[in-house]
Amino acid sequence: MKRILICVSLAASALAVHAQPTVDALSKCLAENTTGRDRKDLAKWLFVAMGAHPEMKAIASITASAPEESSRAAGSLFTKLITESCPSQAKAALAAVGPSAFQSGFTVLGQLAMQELMADKDVAAGMGMLQKYIDSEKLHSALGPK
């Protein structure tokens, strides 16, 4: 039994090593084949979807048409990327890893979208407001040398 577990672990490790380049290639292709507008559309879709959460509804002002519009734009983008821009990379990553390859590839694209949004001065100012409410002394005490 122990031998079987070792063999399965080694096989899984070999597959992961082989699979990573295919996921990296898909991520790179997705990033290279999207514009800033595409990434903002993706971020908008995520924002609208999160705005549907009961705790977010009170603070997110989302129009009735926004879910349909943002889903249409994101769906078109996904379709274009997988079927026109990156079909060989998508097929290879899917074969090597399975559906989670798309999750990994689009996570990278989501990170790029967030970087673009965070670069806006108003967004940066809003994010910077957090610093006012962090207890620096308590942080230094918890993280400093003991």
Give a structural overview.
- This protein is mainly α.
- The chain has a domain at about 25-120.
- The chain has eight helices and no strands.
- The longest helix has about 30 residues, at about 1-30.
- It is globular, with a radius of gyration of 21 Å.
Short synopsis of the structure:
This protein is an all-alpha fold.
In helices, the fraction of residues equals over 70%
Number of helices: 8
Structural class assignment: mainly alpha
Number of strands: 0
Strand proportion, as a percent range, falls in under 5%
| Largest sheet report | none
Cα-based radius of gyration, to the nearest Å: 21 Å
Amino-to-carboxy terminus distance: 46 Å
List SSEs in N-to-C order: HHHHHHHH
Oligomer designation: single chain
Poorly predicted tracts of residues: 4-18
> Which term fits the overall shape?
globular
Mean pLDDT, as a whole number?
A: 86
Quick tags:
single chain, 146 residues, mainly alpha, 80% helix, globular
